[in-house]
């Protein structure tokens, strides 16, 4: 059974981050969202492990909840 790897596996994480940012340069908000959706589906297929995908989805949701300001 595979487990989600959360530490960086990139030899140059900053370069990987810049590539992601650069891919969005010049795109509208809608185009950027479409690119993200396409990338997520491609990478999810590459993972090919339902348990790892579920773990990644849960972590992404948790991260979003932690970064959103409390409403009230």
Briefly summarize what is shown.
With 72 residues, this protein is mostly helical. 68% of the residues lie in helices and 0% in strands.
Task: Give your account of this protein's structure.
With 72 residues, the protein is mainly alpha-helical. The protein has one domain. Helix content is 68%, strand content 0%. It is built from three helices and no strands. The chain has helices at 13-24, 29-47, 50-67. 0% of the residues are buried. The model has no long low-confidence stretch (mean pLDDT 93).
Notable features of this structure?
mainly alpha, 72 residues, 3 helices
* First and last CA, distance: 42 Å
In one word, what is the shape?
globular
Structural class: mainly alpha
- What is the count of structural domains? 1
What is the number of helices? 3
Task: Give the biggest sheet.
Answer: none
pLDDT < 50 runs, ≥5 residues: none
H/E series, N to C?
HHH
Tell me the strand percentage band: under 5%
The averaged pLDDT comes out at 93
Q: Can you give the helix content as a percent range?
A: 55-70%
Nearest-angstrom radius of gyration? 15 Å
For the secondary structure, the number of strands is 0
């Amino acid at each position: 059974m595979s487990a989600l790897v959360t530490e960086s596996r990139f030899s140059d994480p900053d370069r990987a981050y810049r590539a992601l940012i650069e891919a969005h340069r010049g795109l509208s908000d809608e185009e950027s969202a479409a690119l993200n959706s396409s990338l997520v589906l491609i990478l999810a297929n590459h993972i090919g492990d339902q348990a790892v995908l579920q773990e990644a989805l849960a972590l992404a949701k948790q991260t979003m909840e932690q970064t959103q300001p409390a409403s009230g």
